[in-house]
Structure formats: structure tokens, C-alpha cells
Amino acid sequence: MSELSRRPYDATRRRQQAARTRARIIEVAGRLFVERGYAGTTIPAIAGEAGVAVETVYRSASGKAGLLADAVRAAVAGGAERAEVPVTERPAIRRITEETDPVRQLRLYAATQPGIWSRVGPLLRVLDAAANSDASLVELRDEIAAERRQGLRDGFGRMLEQRGVLREGVTAERAGDIVYAVCGLANYVALVFDCGWSEAAYESWLAETLASALLPRP
After folding, report:
1. Is this prediction's pTM over 0.90?
2. What one-character-per-residue DSSP string does 123-152 give?
3. d(CA 218, CA 205)
4. What is the C-alpha separation between 105 and 83, in angstroms, rounded?
5. Which of 39, 89, 115, 139 is most buried (most C-beta within 10 Å)?
6. Is residue 8's pLDDT more than 80?
């Protein structure tokens, strides 16, 4: 085999290795942020735990704040490698979009929330605590919230509107805002942690509340 014919394979292998390395760095960073807090987590510590050079960590993200943002997005997706898959192509989202019954769609969406918040909640608490002393992290917190809100308006809300299943007067934007508020971290913490609800009870409440707010009354 000539050197020329080996290059495409080698390039693909290098990209795959780089992606795995980046995923490992993000996974380690997320764990250390939760264990040590934002200030207590350093780039050298992340590099040491991930088994890579400090320069490799810096190349993988835009500094420590970038790593925290990546860790949050990875937690939403269920892993750094999954986060690289477009949202509409992720299995859980595909199940929701392929479901034709709006009530079952909302139940499927509700079913994704306990897992997401159990993974993301600790990282967002780290971000909230750190933002009190770092203005750049306030911007990051606002960016993450805006990204979620806009995604629900343009994605889930728009899909429900286009299928003609929303209650009269509820637009795609309003539907997205309702989902954003009802399915927010605050309700998960209040009901599951403060009130002691099971995650199954929380999930059922979400599905019932969303159906009541978004769909026409029987």
C-alpha cells in the first residue's frame, strides 16, 4: 500500500482520536467542577486527570469557562460525544418528533427531564456560585439559558405549531416559553429535592401540566 493511499485512513483515525481525547477532557472537567468547584478546578488538574498535556486542554476549549460550557452541553446530551450529534438527530428527540400523538409527545418530552436535570443540575449550581464573583460567568449563564429558551421556541414549540395541535392563541414562541418555565431546573429541585417527590411523580406532573397548558381542552 502506498503512503498516499494510507493518508485518508490516518487522517480519519487522527480525527477520531482527537474527538475521544476532547470528550475525555470535557468529562473530567465536568466531574472536577462538581467535586472542587469552579475556582478549585485548574487546567493543570484537568490535564492530569485526563492524562493529557496542559496545551491539549487549552486546544480543546476556550479556557476554563469554555470547558464549563462544554461540560453543561455534554451533560444535557448525555455525554460529550453525544453532544456533537445535532439535537434533532439524537435518539430521544427523534422519538419525540416521530410521535404523532401530541399527548404522547409531551409525555416523551417529560420523560427526558429527570435525567437531564440530575446530570446538569450540579454543574449549573457550580456556575451560579462562580458567577457571583466572575462577571464573565454571568454572561455564560445567560447564554446557556438563552440557548435553551430559543431552542424550545424554534424547535419544540415550532413543531407543535406546525402540526396544528396547540391551543388557540398559543404561538410557537409562547409554547417554547411555557416548556422553558415548567421544565426548568427550579421546579425539578423544588419538587424532587425540597418536596421529596419521586422522579416518576415529577415526570407525570410535567406531562400533565404541559398538556393542560399547551393543548386544547377536551
Report:
1. no
2. HHHHHHHHHTT-HHHHHHHHHHHHHHHHHI
3. 18
4. 22
5. 115
6. no
